[in-house]
């Protein structure tokens, strides 16, 4: 049996992940409008990863005998002045997400809910990798710039790591 406080926090996390998935999907549309296929591919991949977390956490709650409460998804920011502003925005959002995840894990440990902790623990290393990647991208943008050739290089690097699904199949 899961502590009701943890159930509530898991429901909040599910809604937060759902927001992130939709935000990343929306950002991928922004990138597509600008013909930034690498940026588009990266945010599509991030959207799918967040949605996979939604499914996993819903399944976990259901297995434990609890229902999920999905709320209204707030609208995120879709327009950015440049790629640097985009990555700064996402990096700051991820820091908040990490703080919420750490809080949830702390509550699990203090409640001795080791099963829920173990279920969420793999997300810690994934979150660390995501934050490291975003910091790396911001460092690269600082070196090459957010416009012209710099933007081209950043998009090209992302294209190599995150090809669009239709391009992977080709």
Automatic annotation (TrEMBL):
GO terms for molecular function: ferric iron binding. Signal peptide: none annotated. Residues 1-145 form the Ferritin-like diiron domain. InterPro entries: Ferritin-like, Ferritin-like_diiron, Ferritin-like_SF, Ferritin_DPS_dom. SUPFAM superfamilies: Ferritin-like. Pfam families: Ferritin. This is Ferritin-like diiron domain-containing protein. It comes from Psittacicella hinzii.
